[in-house]
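In the design runs reported in the main text, the only information available to the sequence generator was the tokenized backbone. The following block is the verbatim input for one such run; it is reproduced so that readers can re-run the procedure and compare outputs position by position.
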């Protein structure tokens, strides 16, 4: 292979893994811009992987296994140097089920539990990393099987970028007071990418997924969402298994509403969420649940001088929750009384997963303010 094709192959490999991890809200960057193959991967839980990426235009199991072994050894050395976790990544032009099994067997026999990934140019994608969503892992091992023409192989993952693009598509039907977003109609993925601040490739994959799942009106000149009730149910389902929040008390007594306003006005950007946000947006239905506050840095918020940890068995004054989707939550938020409040779609998503009357509040929104957006009337 000449140097031109080697460079193009390496670039394809890097882009493939960057896009795959971006879709599940993981961050990927080049460790050394002058050395193709070294990637730094950061999981949402903060764990950092130092990955070595190998690529090949051949899919022979013996040769790819040798590349995998080399990547694993080099990744271990890099991870030790940078005090992180190793990961071996392999990209091939074409892949077969026998190749996947060969790498899995090799990993099980010789690896020490390290993370690894395999992506091929013909559609196979396998990410064996702790924390990768189970539904994604279950789907990627099947994409290499031949399927009837017209069947869908694109997986719609509700990543941070995906959710922000969904909010942009729905924004024209939502009052500006309830969602901060541009009110435009988008003709194609390029227009949407520009508005969302994402790459054209990210927007294109998103639009393709919506199309293959039947969520876009093919007769419309714009990207117009249809089958919204089904889409809404899938979106809500992605919010199951939320991380546990931190329970906190105000250090000094006082009216809870006034204390909360002062806290959020001082510590910006932080965001009022869930039921308290619904109340602030004048669409509240459930009361009595302590307010939720979204923060970017949970460790720093634990040391805010206005707060103290709630003791065991003590009713908290508020819950602190780390932001899982910074672009979607932070960009869409609105302001009330000098505070940032999560937007109406975010409120609906968050309360839908809450065990304390969350379904009741979500149903109220779906039958009310959001009825013509994502509810039965959509």
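Verbatim output:
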């Amino acid at each position: 292979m000449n140097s031109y094709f080697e460079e193009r192959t390496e670039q394809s490999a890097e882009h493939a893994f960057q896009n795959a991890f971006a879709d599940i809200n993981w961050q990927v960057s080049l460790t050394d811009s002058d050395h193709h193959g070294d990637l730094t991967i950061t999981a949402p839980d903060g764990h950092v992987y130092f990955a070595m990426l190998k690529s090949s235009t051949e899919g022979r199991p013996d040769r790819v296994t040798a590349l995998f072994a080399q990547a694993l050894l080099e990744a271990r050395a890099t991870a030790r140097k940078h005090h992180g976790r190793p990961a071996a990544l392999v990209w091939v032009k074409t892949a077969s089920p026998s190749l996947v099994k060969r790498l899995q067997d090799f990993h099980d026999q010789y690896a020490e539990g390290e993370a690894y990934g395999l992506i091929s140019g013909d559609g196979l994608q396998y990410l064996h990393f702790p924390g990768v969503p189970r539904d994604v892992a279950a789907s990627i091992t099947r994409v290499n099987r031949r399927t009837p023409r017209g069947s869908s192989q694109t997986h719609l993952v509700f990543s941070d970028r995906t959710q922000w693009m969904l909010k942009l598509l729905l924004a024209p039907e939502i009052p500006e007071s309830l969602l901060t977003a541009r009110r435009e109609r988008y003709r194609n993925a390029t227009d949407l990418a520009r508005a969302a601040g994402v790459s054209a490739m990210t927007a294109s994959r998103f639009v393709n997924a919506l199309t293959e799942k039947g969520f876009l009106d093919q007769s419309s000149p714009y990207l117009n969402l249809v089958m919204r009730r089904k889409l809404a149910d899938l979106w809500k389902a992605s919010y199951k298994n939320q991380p546990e929040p931190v329970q906190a008390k105000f250090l000094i007594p006082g009216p809870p509403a006034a204390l909360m306003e002062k806290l959020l006005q001082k510590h910006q950007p932080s965001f009022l969420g869930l039921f308290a946000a619904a109340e602030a947006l004048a669409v509240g239905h459930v009361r009595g649940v302590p307010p939720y506050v979204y923060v970017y840095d949970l460790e720093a918020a634990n040391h805010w001088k206005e707060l103290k940890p709630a003791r065991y068995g003590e009713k908290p004054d508020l819950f602190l929750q780390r932001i899982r989707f910074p672009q979607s939550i932070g960009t869409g938020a609105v302001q009330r009384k000098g505070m940032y409040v999560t937007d109406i779609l975010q409120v609906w998503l968050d309360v839908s997963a809450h065990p304390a009357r969350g379904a009741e509040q979500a149903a109220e929104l779906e039958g009310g303010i959001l009825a013509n957006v994502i509810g039965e009337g959509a």
